[in-house]
Write a structure and sequence with these properties.
This protein is of the alpha+beta class. The protein contains three helices and 13 strands.
């Protein structure tokens, strides 16, 4: 019985070690990818740094499995996007077809309305934007949370407090391709200087 228990414990330890190693490798891959992007401190309470551009350019869209598989460590969570909605100023740029988002620090980023890709067709380019989060839907299998934003007067929703943007998990993620914007955690400061 002692031998069986010991063997079982070794299996558990091995599984945990493999999972931790995979997590470390994913983090290292994220750091390597992030090195090719510039990040901005918007002055948010979470300390989240937001990339100044979308992955692989404005027009590039990703299906959810591809986004999670390649960029999981850099995908914003549902909470991080909600913080962006709640605490930042959003202004629609008609010429560039994008939202300019200004944070408490005065710094800003822009999120292009690159539309989505569905059934082999791009839809609503220049009018709507869809951005994946890392957060899977709790009660809807095959769904994930994403930021949906749209320009006025292109669309008006009744009782929508946030003018032109909201978080939802409406669409089945296997059938859609959305934009991806990276985030990066702000490291703790040492001697008044940030590690980043």
């Amino acid at each position: 019985m002692r031998f069986i228990c010991g063997k079982f414990r070794r299996r558990v330890y091995w599984k945990v070690a493999v999972e931790k190693t995979a997590a470390v490798l994913d983090y290292m891959d994220s750091v390597a990818v992030a090195a090719d992007y510039s990040f901005v401190d918007l002055g948010l309470p979470s300390g989240t740094l937001w990339a100044t551009e979308n992955t692989d350019g404005t027009l590039q869209l990703h299906d959810y499995r591809d986004a999670r598989g390649r960029y999981l460590g850099l995908l914003p969570s549902r909470e991080q996007f909600q913080e962006l909605i709640d605490l930042c100023k959003w202004d629609w740029d008609r010429e560039r077809k994008e939202f300019v988002i200004t944070g408490p620090s005065g710094a800003s980023i822009s999120l292009p309305a690159a539309g989505s890709f569905y059934n082999r067709h791009r839809r609503a380019y220049g009018k709507e934007g869809y951005y994946w989060t890392s957060t899977m839907s709790e009660g809807r299998k095959g769904h994930a949370w994403y930021l949906f934003m749209f320009s006025f007067p292109h669309m008006r929703w009744e009782n929508l407090e946030n003018k032109g943007m909201l978080m939802t998990d409406e669409y089945f993620f296997y059938l859609n391709e959305f934009s991806v914007r990276f985030v990066y955690p702000k490291l703790k400061e040492k001697n008044g200087k940030s590690d980043i």
